């Protein structure tokens, strides 16, 4: 990967299903790494591989898996999906979460507090100058107040005076996040409203509880002993339906503070 980055002279690199080996091959860099509850990965993968992913996106190697899922009941299909996901979950479980140049973020937190966390991510990447304004607190609160007062729909980014900074401006970043919120991607559905055939199926962290049986959870634990505890998913996830999606109480912890 190092040779590819050098050859293409890349300034930004996005890696799907990254392994720690990917990070270790790169030269000096700043990055962020998003993890998700493995149980939700299983459920999301089951529906995506069975229905919503196009054949072009899943590739020929995965078509057999799709055929298998469509032949099996949901319960047996989830058994199949847990085995299918084993290599990816092994990569997740083997990740080095102590690297100071990589900000660790939980998918659930990003779903619950997208405006706050994307500001923090871009500050970490030095793409927004945090010394000019405490963006993670003040800007997200300003955006929340504007949103609640006018129910605005952003086109071309918000224009807040006096906030022009190198990289991407904070107001533009907030506008981009707003334009790509779940309701837009899901054709108007709100978080928690399910369409099983849509790529953006539900957007609700913790949906695994509606699908995985004790037998599935035992299978997952047998394949990856102690993984949920190591990743910080032993407790129930946040109920985002009871929170403010524009709030900025990012909290502190190994997956949100660095």
Could you provide a short overview of the structure?
It contains 14 helices and two strands, in the order ααβαααααβααααααα. The protein is mainly α and 258 residues long. Helix 5 (60-71) runs antiparallel to helix 6.
The helix content, as a percent range, equals 40-55%
Count of beta strands: 2
Order of helical and strand elements: HHEHHHHHEHHHHHHH
Strand content: under 5%
Over the alpha carbons, how many angstroms does the gyration radius reach? 20 Å
**Largest beta-sheet characterization:** 2 strands, parallel
Overall 3D geometry?
globular
Mean pLDDT across residues = 76
Secondary-structure topology with pairs:
Elements: H1 2-8, H2 20-25, E1 31-35, H3 38-52, H4 55-58, H5 60-71, H6 74-84, H7 86-93, E2 102-106, H8 107-112, H9 114-124, H10 135-150, H11 170-179, H12 182-185, H13 214-223, H14 227-230
Parallel strand pairs: 1-2
Helix pairs in contact: 3-5, 3-6, 5-6, 6-13, 9-10, 9-11
